[in-house]
Each structure stands twice: as C-alpha cells, then as structure tokens.
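Hi R.,

As promised on Friday, here is the backbone we talked about, encoded as structure tokens. Could you run it through your design pipeline when you get a chance and send me back a sequence?
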C-alpha cells in the first residue's frame, strides 16, 4: 500500500505548478509565524516574570 500512496501523491503533485508546490512545502516545513508584536509581548511577559 505504501507504493500505491506514493504513486497517488506523485500524480497529485504533477497537477501543481512549481510555485504552488513551493508554497505548499513552505507551509508544511515553515508554518506561518504569529506577528512580531505578539511574539515580543509574549516574550516580555515570559521573561519579565523571571
């Protein structure tokens, strides 16, 4: 079944353009990060308590 699933994934990726494939891979490996002010506020709240 592993080979079948790989073949199916290959067929799916064939229909994607390079940009679409790149954005999908980026979304998988680099999940969108929260805005900077949010992370800064979280960091200040966390480190300020120490």
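Update: got your reply. Pasting your designed sequence below so it's all in one thread:
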């Amino acid at each position: 079944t592993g080979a079948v699933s790989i073949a199916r994934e290959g067929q799916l990726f064939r229909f994607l353009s390079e940009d679409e494939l790149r954005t999908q891979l980026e979304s998988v490996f680099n999940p969108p990060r929260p805005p900077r002010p949010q992370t800064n506020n979280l960091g200040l709240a966390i480190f300020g308590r120490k």
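One thing I noticed while checking it: Residues 36-49 form the longest helix (14 residues).

Thanks again,
M.
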